[in-house]
Specification:
The structure is a single chain. This protein is 34% helix and 21% strand. By secondary structure, the protein is of the alpha/beta class. The chain has two domains: 3-241 and 311-350, Class I glutamine amidotransferase (GATase) domain (Rossmann fold); 244-307, no CATH class. It has a ten-stranded mixed beta sheet. The two termini are 36 Å apart.
């Protein structure tokens, strides 16, 4: 099914890939179309990649469900000049969200700058969006850091630091029958890339339902009904491309060689094949012995990239197809639109026509 970018503000890399960016008129009815706000907060180097990743995933998952997509980003996320220009040209202002009528919302994480998420400069904008989404969407997806921020804001669940970065592709199993995961005929696989986690026991104590869990990665996918919206939380990244973890691994090696981190990064788990792992181990040995940023010219990126396979695509498409179907079947059962206007302190206040 074609994917429509609302307002015709089509990011150039999507247009260049020759994917469809229009929607047939016969699918424009509010009854049939799923309208999604994508709030992309990823750091500048990953901003445009993340756009395309979600667009490809939604298009692959949509089947015969028409999808309309609008782009937003939280104010307060640090941006360079190029990224600010991109947001200006292809994204809507966050104030436009409050009066928008969306069936669903997807919000990405970003690279944290503070150990306490509530001290991040975008915190109040983020919590305004969460409060708005509870009343004005059928479902909301929160990814990685956004998931951690969501449970902190709603229930005071604190993320916990890990001893090392959880990095790689991990199998998870369905632990609760739910329409988002059924039929669970095989283990689901998801990439993870994070330094923190929220524990399963803390989540269940606050009424969250864990749908999938991994021996290594812990609670993977979990949900909770928040007023009118089913909130869906991913600690991982189903949307990632085959080469995304490689880019992050390469970035972390560069940081080590620049002495911006103390340890050489661990290879992502279950991601490289045996031959590639051996090649990268040889590069590591040389790089550690000759600690200098110029060593990156010898990094075998082309060889490594050619060996990669997206082993989680089935899982990602399966879950997002179920999610889109969930949204479609519930969008017309929701209460009337309840506008929320943030006050000056960033606290969302419902208007008088809100249905509580």
């Amino acid at each position: 099914m074609a994917l429509l970018i609302d307002g015709g503000r089509i990011p150039p890399r999507w247009a260049e890939r020759s994917f469809s960016a229009s929607l047939n008129v016969r699918h424009e009815s509010a009854q049939e179309c799923v309208k999604i706000a994508l709030i992309n907060n990823m750091p500048d180097p990953a901003l445009e990649d993340t756009e395309i990743q979600f667009m490809e995933l939604l298009e692959a998952a949509s089947g015969d469900i028409p999808v309309r997509l609008s782009f937003y980003s939280l104010p307060g996320v640090p941006r360079g000049d190029r990224a600010q220009e991109h947001l200006k040209n292809f994204y809507c202002g966050i104030d436009d969200l409050w009066d928008g009528r969306f069936d669903a919302l997807i919000m990405t994480g970003t690279e944290p700058r503070q150990s306490d998420l509530a001290k991040e400069p975008y915190w109040y904008a983020l919590t305004d969006v969460l409060d708005w989404a509870e009343r004005n969407t059928a479902s909301t997806v929160l990814s990685c850091l956004a998931a951690h921020a969501g449970v902190l804001h709603s229930d005071g669940v604190q993320r916990q630091p890990l001893g090392d970065k959880l990095f790689g592709v991990f199998d998870s199993v369905s632990v609760l029958d739910h329409e988002l995961t059924r039929p669970a005929t095989r283990p689901l696989r998801f990439p993870h890339s994070r330094w923190n986690e929220v524990h399963g026991n803390a989540l269940t104590a606050c009424g969250y339902s864990i749908l999938t869990s991994s021996t290594q990665a812990g609670a993977d996918l979990f949900v909770k009904q928040k007023k009118n919206s089913l909130f869906v939380y991913f600690q991982g990244h189903p949307e990632y491309w085959a080469g995304t973890l490689l880019k992050e691994y390469r970035r972390d090696i560069k940081r080590f060689l620049r002495k911006e981190r103390e340890t050489y990064p661990t290879m992502p788990y279950e991601y490289f094949d045996i031959a590639t792992s051996k090649l990268l181990a040889e590069f590591q040995e040389t790089a550690v012995a000759n600690l200098h940023p110029e060593q990156m010219v010898f990094f075998p990126e082309a060889i490594v990239a050619a060996s990669l396979r997206n082993t989680w695509q089935f899982s990602a498409v399966h879950l997002y197809r179920n999610w889109l179907q969930y949204v479609l079947t519930r969008k017309n059962k929701r209460p009337a639109f309840a506008a929320i206007t943030p006050n000056r302190r960033g606290v969302a206040i419902a208007s008088s026509n809100e249905l509580v």
